[in-house]
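Final paragraph of the annual report: two paired records, presented back to back.
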Amino acid sequence: MNLWYFSSMKRNSKHNLIKRLQTELPRGAPFDLAALAGLGISAKLAAHYVGAGWLIRLGQGVYAFPNDDFSALGAVRMLQTRVPGLHVAGKSALALQGVRHNLGSREPLVLWGDTRFVLPAWFTHRFPGRYVYARLFEWPDSSLAKETLTTPPGVQGDLQVSVPERAVLEMLYDVGTRQGQEEAHNLIESLRGLRKDVLGRQLACCTSVKATRLFLHWARETNLVDVDLLLEQYALRVGSDSRWMSRLKDGTLLSLEPHG
């Protein structure tokens, strides 16, 4: 075997790697070193591809194809591989499932996760968004937590999104801080077809007295669900039997009865 043969083999190997890179990684989303490693592309080779113009580097260990106009949801799908429990939450999850109230195209994307995390600059420079880490639920086991995440019809890939019953409680947790009361109330009025068993089990796991009482109060006010039946069938964490009052960060005084 001569030098020409080895040189030819090396060229073919490089060509095959570039071909796999172009054909096996989907457009519309960034990717990380783990995805590249699955194709046999090392960090050093990825850096070479950046220099050659085959890839662009978005941030630490994150890449994309040049001129690939990837979406916010495509970027979230990639982040979900790196951040435990990351999912589209709150009113963003409701919007993806058809519950809207004057949501603008530049509305910040609400993301929640199971660990402390700061959205990377390459994401926030392209898309408005915020990340929340809060122990809103004490799940009895992992199965219920998984049941409360879904990929809505029409959404590409395996994007994890809160089901409406979970999303509404995430939204109410944010009321008075990053979520306005009026908009939250309007979205509650827009909700239809909540599943009583899913809702009841999640309310029983909800650790936020504010979110639970606010849901019961507005659900009773809007006839969203039979609140008395919920209270009868599920042990909800409403705190004491006295009125709950709190001055929220936005200056609003909330005053809520224990049972709505």
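The closing record of the year follows.
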Amino acid sequence: MSSRLRWESEGRDWPQREASHFVDTPGMTWRVVRAGAGPMLLLLHGTGSSAHSWAGAISELSRYFTVIAPDLPGHAFTRGRPRGGLSLRAIIQALSELVASAEAIPVMVVGHSAGAAIAVEYARQLDPDFPVIGFNPALMPFPGIAARLFPAMAKLLFVNPFAPRIFARMARVPGETERFLKRATGSHIPDESVRCYRTLLGNSRHCEGALEMMANWDLPALAAALPTVRNPVLLVHSRQDGAIPLEQVREAAALLPRGTLVVEEGHGHLAHEENPAMAVQHIIAFARLQGVLRQEETAI
């Protein structure tokens, strides 16, 4: 499967299809889920995923917010390429253009994993009082020798034209996506989410986009910038996360001048998919704490 994912075929029974829209910005055509009414809440998925990862939370969140959840550049059903590729800076610029096209300003941004890194940097550039939530956030370099090897390996895999095809072929082996998700994340997610990941990871163009994002991710620079982030930031991490060690998130929270860490038990890296109600509860409570929602709007 070397062609891109097609909305008219692979997307015909995709989560939130009825709330999906395609939005053009310079060099990009985004697939965006837009639902609800009220202040705008921006939701960002992690590397290798898509906006489907927020499906379980969007129905409840849309009671209080206008929820905007895009497929990030290089991922799923979004097309095109930001100027500058899939670096953090280029993705944030492209995301800013997408938000500008919505003719509204978000009141809060929520990201998962690498999406949390995008969220933190986006907020830092936007307004020092703009609140951020990062679920299972990827904000720190990998420990030890992995800090040097992982970016290099990602770059090597990205420039190898066969690597995305090999990954996609493996994902299409019956049961392999389920085994990979369990090994890599420690999460037990709903069957609908597994089905989406099977489609995503079985597509070589999607895998190529995920690899390029990892190859261009400069986590040491991001970590060095954390003390300059004046925004209120809530980090929600899972003790059983198989992808990101808790100690890394503790370190990130300590570097953030207005950072708070909450540790959840019994979930893995995809905690917001395992337990959407938990994610919604944190988002609503933080929105209330930051004055994004009035008290009478948050009785969930």
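The longest helix spans residues 88-101. This concludes the annual technical report; the extension proposal builds directly on these records.
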